[in-house]
Specification:
The protein has seven helices and eleven strands. It is α/β, with parallel strands linked by helices and about 270 residues long. The chain has one domain: 4-Layer Sandwich (Metallo-beta-lactamase, Chain A), CATH 3.60.15.10. It has a six-stranded mixed beta sheet, with helices on one face. The protein has a five-stranded mixed beta sheet with strand order 7-8-9-10-11, with no helix packed on it. Helix 4 packs antiparallel against helix 5 and helix 6 crosses helix 7. The termini are far apart.
């Protein structure tokens, strides 16, 4: 399935960054949000420091003086690298949960509402992929921007040790509840195509994560006789549980396995 971004709903436009790879899928989705008839935009995740991408993003957002704020879903460089550069170019601040990624005095926290020229963006704390992961709900369009918490294709990595599986499962439950109440009927992710059925996607994400956790527990039983140390165990679990996955992805899978092992040990 090819993905090139575009306009969605009444308030969203995705400008796709030219940084595709095995982890970013087609590239980073940089989102421009604007209320119909509004002058200023909100930009979510400016992405990498690529001149062509930033020029296209600035054009979509209306140029200097027409961006009310840059928001970050989390600190990973494929989302945040160009945030300060872009914000300075268009004349606004950067708001993030992590103070180290802000430009200006305003941060972001769960429950905040960012209001710009009639646009309302509600901040939903969704830690797990990283400790500082946020999602952004657009009530008027009934969509949620999920960063890397939910992707448009495949599933995400819980980036241990910064990411925590318990927190991630709680975040999936929170997003699932928004979808059940039909406050969010679609997902605009940080990578990959828009998801039109938020409830189905979030149900799949929860079921998939539980299935992987069950597989890890079963693998631990199979590997008991090998008497593996702490350093060797996660890779052996990956080799068992992710045997059907391209080994190129095993490094990322190991991060998730380490998070799963920490979760199981803490239960």
């Amino acid at each position: 399935m090819s993905w090139a971004g575009g306009s969605f709903g009444e308030r969203g436009r995705c400008v796709l960054a030219p940084n595709p790879n095995i982890m970013t899928l087609d590239g980073t989705n940089s989102w421009v949000l604007r209320e119909p008839g509004g002058r200023r935009s909100v930009v979510v995740d400016p992405g990498p420091s690529d001149p062509g991408h930033l020029a296209a993003l600035a054009e979509a957002a209306g140029g200097r003086g027409n961006v009310g704020a840059v928001l970050l879903t989390h600190h990973h460089a494929d989302h945040s690298e160009a945030a300060r550069e872009f914000a300075e170019a268009v004349g606004c601040g950067v708001r993030a949960l992590d103070p180290g990624y802000r430009l200006g005095s305003e941060g972001l926290a769960d429950g905040d509402v960012v209001a710009v020229d009639g646009l309302e963006v509600h901040v939903v704390g969704t830690p797990g992929h990283t400790a500082d992961s946020l999602s952004f709900l657009l009530p008027a369009d009934r969509v949620v921007l999920t960063g890397d918490t939910v992707l448009g294709r495949g599933t995400t990595v819980v980036a241990h040790p910064d990411g925590q599986l318990g927190a991630y499962l709680d975040s999936l439950d929170r997003l699932h509840a928004l979808a059940e109440r039909e406050e969010a009927t679609a997902v605009w992710p940080g990578h990959g195509p828009v998801i039109d059925d938020a409830l189905a996607a979030l149900t799949y994400y929860r079921d998939h994560r539980q299935a992987r956790l069950d597989q890890v527990e079963a693998a631990l039983g199979q590997l008991e006789d090998e008497q593996l140390g702490e350093d060797a165990l996660p890779r052996r679990v990956v080799e068992v549980v992710y045997a059907d996955v391209d080994p190129v992805l095993w490094g990322a899978a190991e991060l998730s396995v380490r998070a799963q092992l920490a979760y199981l040990q803490g239960r």
